[in-house]
UniProtKB/TrEMBL annotation:
Keywords: Membrane, Transmembrane, Transmembrane helix
PANTHER family documented for this protein: BLL2464 PROTEIN, POSSIBLE CONSERVED SECRETED PROTEIN
Pfam family, one: DUF58
Membrane-spanning residues: 12-32
InterPro entries found in the cross-reference section: DUF58
Stretches assigned to the DUF58 domain: 191-361
Organism: Amnibacterium endophyticum
Protein name: DUF58 domain-containing protein
């Protein structure tokens, strides 16, 4: 919960004016001997005395949030001193226009608002500002705006097919390598040779062998190895499905955004490789973005999920190519709206890496778009289509993340891989 903000009391002057009017009426009534006129000033004098009484202390405003499965609960607390009559609050959710409510001092001590979960990642959920009123409206204390922020974790998705690099590492892992080793997959039977382990001797095959008694037969197995996977996220763009909102970028109106697709995509890819026993690294393509060094295990998965969840859009930021391990499989998560990221994918592919272009551009919505928006969007999509076709021609696997057949595309790409 954010720290309380405090302000001073400000007087509107109504109580002083009311007191002056009461003195005048009392003076006129006493001066002319009119008791009935003097009595009219007594209620005004009592009201002025109440109005001039200043509450002891200052009010404070604090907001906080907690994230649920289907909603973000924002809690607003107003601590008001004795003597406060009303609390006037104006609040706007997701940067939308504010709504004003007037409540009593007791009701304002703790209020909750349930807001829908619109996007993942760090975001401003609610902005609250207002004032407290005391002394019959004569005393007002303005409160500085308080902002409630939340970090919403992306939905957990799965990838059932893994694209492996052209060459696996020498470390033992969960994938069958095309070389002899201590794996679990049977390869063939061969005569015993120096360097073979005694426990690999197949005594039944030796007894059935037509060779001389001195020849021993061993069972040879395929080795296991791990893959080096790197996930690179292009966080420069966070465009929504509503193309009419690309310029304004209002959270409540832009629909599903590209980062809403990129965050679960990166987390799901990392989880699939880590569950298979591989090593995964994560890099934000922007110069100021966060990263996670290559590693394996459950702790590495939680680290990558935390880094991905807190990734924010950095429009106009410069990109920096990360250092990749030898013979890695690179998942480049981007909207591919410019040439820079496509050129980087071509560069990695020419260096011998296996590259998967994960397309996270949302399906467009033309609602509210005028002719200029439609024409610009069409030209942009034509340029992007040519860019993705160029990636396919050089051997980059392009996978639209919103495509229902994305696992089929990944499975086809894995079947077409070269020798490892």
């Amino acid at each position: 919960m954010s720290a309380p903000t405090q302000q001073r009391w400000h007087r509107r002057g109504g109580g002083a004016a009311l007191g002056m009017l009461a003195i005048v009426i009392l003076g006129v009534g006493l001066g002319f001997g009119r008791a009935d006129v003097a009595l009219l000033g007594l209620p005004l004098a009592a009201t002025a005395a109440i109005a001039l009484r200043r509450p002891v202390g200052t009010a404070s405003l604090a907001v906080g949030t907690r994230v649920g499965d289907d909603a973000v609960v924002a809690e607003v607390r107003v601590a008001a001193p004795a003597g406060v009559d009303l609390v006037v609050l104006s609040s706007g959710a997701y940067e939308e226009p504010s709504t004003t409510v007037v409540v009593g001092a007791r009701q304002a001590r703790s209020m909750e608002a349930r807001l829908p979960v619109l996007h993942s990642g760090p975001q401003e959920v609610l902005r609250v500002h207002g004032r407290v009123v005391a002394a019959g409206g004569d005393l007002v204390q303005h409160l500085e705006p308080a902002v409630a922020r939340a970090v919403v974790a992306p939905a957990r998705e799965r990838v059932t097919s893994l694209v492996l690099p052209h060459r696996l590492t020498n470390r033992p892992g969960g994938h069958a390598a095309r070389r002899l080793g201590d794996g679990l997959d049977f390869r063939d039977l061969a005569p015993f040779a120096p360097g073979d382990r005694l426990r690999r001797i197949d005594w039944r095959a030796t007894a059935r062998s037509p060779r001389s008694d001195s020849d021993l037969i061993v069972r040879r197995m395929d080795a296991t190895a791990e893959a080096a996977a790197v996930i690179v996220l292009d966080s420069r763009d966070d465009v929504g499905a509503a193309i009419a909102e690309w310029a304004s970028d209002r959270p409540a109106r832009k629909g599903t955004s590209s980062l809403d697709l990129a965050r679960p995509a990166a987390a799901a890819i990392a989880a699939s490789y880590l569950e298979a026993g591989d090593r995964v690294a994560f890099h934000d393509l922007t110069r100021t973005g966060a990263s996670a060094r290559s590693g394996g295990g459950r702790r590495k998965l939680e680290q990558i999920r935390a880094v991905v969840t807190r990734t924010t859009a950095r429009p106009g930021a410069s990109i920096t190519a990360p250092v990749l391990p030898a013979a890695a499989v690179v998942h480049l998560v981007s909207t591919f709206l410019d040439e820079d990221v496509a050129d980087l994918a071509v560069l990695w592919r020419s260096a011998g890496h296996r590259v998967v272009a994960v397309d996270v551009l949302p399906a467009p919505s033309l609602e509210g778009a005028d002719d200029a928006h439609r024409l610009a969007h069409r030209v942009l999509l034509l340029e992007r289509a040519d860019r993705l076709d160029r990636l396919r021609r050089v051997g980059v696997t392009v996978v639209p993340w919103q495509d229902a057949d994305r696992d089929v595309l990944l499975r086809q790409a894995e079947r077409a891989r070269g020798p490892r």
